[in-house]
Inverse folding.
C-alpha cells in the first residue's frame, strides 16, 4: 500500500463557491465578509458608475451609495443572478438617479476623465470607440479625441450607455445586458451601431481613417 496521502476527499473550491460563501456569511451579519465582497467588486462598480456620470468624484459617490444600498438589501439577494450582476444593477440604477439632468450629463461627458489602474487620470473617452488597438492608437490624436467627445455626448442615450459600459472592460456583455435590462443581442447591436455612427460622423468631418 502506498504511503502517499490520499486525495480522494480533496475538493477544489471554485471562485463562484467562494463568493457564494461570502454572500451567505454577509447575510448572516459578517461585516468582514461583506468587506471582502466590496474589495472584489470595487473597481467594476466604480467604472460602471463612471460610465454613467462621467466624473470620478461623482462616480465615487455613486459607488459608495451602491454598496450601502446593497448592504441594506442583502437579505433580498436570492442568487437568481451572480452577486456581481445584482450589485452592478443597483449601481446603474443609482447612477441614473444621479444623472437626472441631461444637461449636466452632457457637460460631464464633454469634459470627463477617469482614473486608470495606476491612479493616473486619463480621458474617459479614450479608446472607447473600438476594441481594436490600432484604431485606438489613431483615436489618440487630440483633434479626433475632441470631436469624439462631442459625438459620443450627442449619441442617443441607449447607444451611448451601451458603448460607455462596454468600453470600461470591467463587465461582460451578459452583465451589462442585465444592468440595462435588454437582451444580449440588443446590447451588442447598440454597441455596434454606436461605433458605426461615430465612425460615419468622424468620416464626414474628414477623419477618413478613424
Amino acid at each position: 500500500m502506498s504511503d502517499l496521502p490520499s486525495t480522494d476527499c480533496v475538493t477544489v473550491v471554485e471562485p463562484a463557491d467562494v463568493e457564494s460563501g461570502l454572500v451567505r456569511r454577509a447575510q448572516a451579519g459578517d461585516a468582514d465578509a461583506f468587506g471582502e465582497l466590496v474589495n472584489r467588486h470595487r473597481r467594476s462598480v466604480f467604472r460602471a458608475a463612471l460610465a454613467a456620470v462621467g466624473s470620478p468624484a461623482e462616480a465615487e459617490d455613486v459607488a459608495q451609495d451602491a454598496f450601502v444600498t446593497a448592504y441594506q438589501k442583502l437579505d433580498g439577494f436570492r442568487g437568481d443572478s451572480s452577486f456581481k450582476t445584482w450589485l452592478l444593477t443597483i449601481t446603474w440604477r443609482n447612477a441614473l438617479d444621479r444623472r437626472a439632468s441631461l444637461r449636466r450629463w452632457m457637460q460631464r461627458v464633454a469634459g470627463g476623465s477617469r482614473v486608470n489602474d495606476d491612479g493616473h487620470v486619463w480621458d474617459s473617452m479614450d479608446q472607447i470607440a473600438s476594441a481594436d488597438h490600432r484604431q485606438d492608437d489613431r483615436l489618440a490624436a487630440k483633434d479626433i479625441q475632441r470631436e469624439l467627445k462631442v459625438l459620443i455626448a450627442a449619441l442617443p442615450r441607449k447607444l451611448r450607455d451601451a458603448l460607455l459600459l462596454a468600453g470600461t472592460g470591467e463587465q461582460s456583455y451578459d452583465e451589462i445586458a442585465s444592468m440595462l435590462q435588454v437582451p444580449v443581442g440588443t446590447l451588442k447591436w447598440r454597441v455596434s451601431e454606436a461605433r458605426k455612427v461615430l465612425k460615419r460622423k468622424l468620416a464626414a468631418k474628414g477623419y477618413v481613417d478613424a
